[in-house]
Write a structure and sequence with these properties.
Keywords: Acyltransferase, Transferase. Pfam families: Acetyltransf_1. The protein is α+β, with helices and mostly antiparallel strands. The chain has one domain: Gcn5-related N-acetyltransferase (GNAT) (Aminopeptidase, 3-Layer(aba) Sandwich), CATH 3.40.630. It is 28% helix and 25% strand. The protein contains four helices and six strands. The longest helix has 15 residues.
Length: 141
């Protein structure tokens, strides 16, 4: 897989493994990590994603995103996160763009996502649009 070298020591690449604590640190920075969750699931989460794109500054994980798909038809992008002190510099855009490029390269052209509140404009600039005829839903156990 192509490694995209960015400015300074930053690089963007598709990976199949990463230190679980690096992902936990990103999730904590974003306010996504809940007490009691186990980082034991992270290796499978990364390996079983259709594509997992990581933004590294040197050896440090500072951003990530992943695509879920069967590799043939539809795909969903999720977990787009950039560490707080790296935000506002276009890194999230590069992560999403790389995921879209990877999906389109294998012929997947239906790519969806559920954005967090306040992210609509960000995703619209990247070519995503609302699907007013659909309602995102989540199963509640």
């Amino acid at each position: 897989m192509e490694v995209l070298l960015l400015e300074n020591s930053l690089r963007l690449e598709v990976i199949t493994s990463v230190r679980p604590e690096a992902v936990v640190d990103l999730y904590m920075d974003a306010g996504w990590w809940e007490e009691g969750w186990s980082e034991d699931v992270i290796p499978a989460m990364v390996a079983n994603s259709f594509r997992f794109v990581a933004l590294f500054d040197g050896s440090e994980l500072v951003g990530m995103g992943r695509a879920l798909s069967d590799g043939v038809s539809d795909a969903y992008i999720q977990d787009i996160v950039v560490r707080t002190d790296y935000r506002g510099q276009g890194w999230g855009k590069k992560i999403v763009s790389r995921l879209v490029k990877e999906l389109r390269a294998v012929g997947i052209d239906w790519i969806g996502l559920v954005g967090a509140p306040g992210t609509k404009a960000f995703y619209e600039k990247l070519g995503f649009s609302e699907m007013p005829q659909f309602v995102p839903m989540k199963y509640q156990c």
